[in-house]
Write a structure and sequence with these properties.
The protein is mostly helical. Helices cover about 75% and strands about 0% of the residues. The protein has one domain. A hairpin with a 2-residue loop joins strand 1 and strand 2. The radius of gyration is 20 Å and the shape is elongated.
Length: about 170
């Protein structure tokens, strides 16, 4: 068999995977709800880290209150985005079949857990921000990057959640 014959045929496992539906099951006017909802917790996780740095440098208790709100909102917005993402994972066979989907889900659930711990710490003892809250904020930011990396792979490498019309 020549190289032209083998290069034109795709791996049968990949062909089977690509045949599965991977369009978003939860969308508004063709826009995937999970992709729209993750921006808020991402921004708030990084915002909490910035607020912690401001508190570290200024020692102004105003930043403790801001950190309580940003960490709590990041946690609850993350739960909302996670519910939609979990529904997509369960409902769409083309998403469920990809390893990157599971890596994204595991990183995201870990992130939500860390965000919840960060908020809970601030709720119980606002002055525990240094050093424990700061460390949780750094960890949450790293996990946001990991979850985002895998989420980006799903969209850009695998076309997950994209609803492309035939004319496109």
């Amino acid at each position: 068999m020549s190289d032209a014959d083998t290069s034109s045929r795709q791996n049968p496992v990949i062909e089977k995977l690509e045949a599965k539906d991977k369009t978003s099951a939860i969308a508004v006017a063709g826009h995937p709800l999970h992709a729209m909802s993750v921006h808020f917790p991402i921004a708030l996780v990084f915002g909490t880290l910035v607020v912690d740095v401001f508190y570290w440098f200024t020692a102004d208790t105003f930043w403790l209150r801001v950190g309580l709100w940003t960490s709590g909102t990041a946690f609850f917005a993350g739960i909302a985005a996670g519910i939609v993402g979990t529904a997509e994972l369960i409902l769409v066979p083309g998403i469920r079949a990809r390893v990157a989907s599971w890596a994204h889900a595991i990183a995201a659930v870990t992130l939500i857990s860390v965000a919840g711990a960060n908020w809970g710490l601030r709720l119980l003892d606002p002055f525990a921000v240094l050093p424990h809250g700061m460390l949780l904020s750094v960890l949450a930011s790293i996990l946001t990057g990991v979850a985002g990396w895998h989420g980006g792979k799903l969209i850009f490498d695998h076309g997950i959640g994209l609803m492309v019309s035939p004319k496109d």
